[in-house]
Amino acid sequence: MPPPKGAIARQTSADQAARYIRRLIFDADLRPHDRVPQDAVASVLGISRIPVREALIALEREGWVTIEPHRGAFVNALDEAAVRDHFELYGLTFGLAAQRAIERGVAPLVAALEPLVAGVREETDADRFSRLAVAFHDAVVAAAASPRIGVVLRAISTLVPGNFFALIPNAIPIEREGLVALLDAFRAGDPVRARDEYIDMMRRQADQVVTLFAARELFGERKAAAG
């Protein structure tokens, strides 16, 4: 097993194991239908098998693996439709947050977003860009003041383990254009336009992820369920 990439801070051992296994799948160190080597994962991370098992239970809920009794956990094949559905859910949920934020009064939100968008216009460093983009989306969700929206977003697991903007080609220009367009929609106080801009941006990001996953041969036929 290769060592984990990047520092992992303020996570439980199970979170750390889940992130590491996602990265193994993303990097094609584990292929569709491969058995996840729990002992090797525990050894590389310096943890016991208990948090690895906890991680696999969480990853099964997220659709990354299937646990077969007395056999172990096996990597699921990803498919293009699942990737596109993932980003569609993001677009719809953030779009709803944008609508709710405008309904509640958009002036404070615009004031918070303007310096962030000023930053992303010129930023090319993936880490700094990611912090600005996350701050933008967090501000929109906070302005929506809807706990249910937050719950839904937290329930959508990441498909790209690591810095999305460092790993996905063209993600930065797509996000930059999307955030500029969203700020214009917020300034106009147009909830429908803001919703549609979010959906469009997430669909464009989905195109990039699908292209990368196909190039890495992460898509494959799913095993038929045992009858």
Shape label = elongated
The end-to-end span amounts to: 33 Å
CATH domain fold name of the largest domain? Four Helix Bundle (Hemerythrin (Met), subunit A)
CATH architecture of the largest domain: Up-down Bundle
CATH superfamily of the largest domain: GntR ligand-binding domain-like
The ordered string of helix (H) and strand (E) elements is HHHEEHHHHHHH
The number of strands is 2
Strand order of the largest sheet: 1-2
The share of residues in extended strands comes to: under 5%
Low-pLDDT sequence parts:
none
Q: What does the model show?
A:
- This protein is mainly α and 227 residues long.
- The protein folds into two domains: 13-75, Orthogonal Bundle (Arc Repressor Mutant, subunit A), CATH 1.10.10.10; 80-215, GntR ligand-binding domain-like (Four Helix Bundle (Hemerythrin (Met), subunit A), Up-down Bundle).
- 67% of the residues lie in helices and 4% in strands.
- It has a two-stranded antiparallel sheet with strand order 1-2.
- Strand 1 and strand 2 form a beta hairpin.
- Helix 9 packs antiparallel against helix 10 (191-215).
- The protein is elongated.
- 33% of the residues are buried.
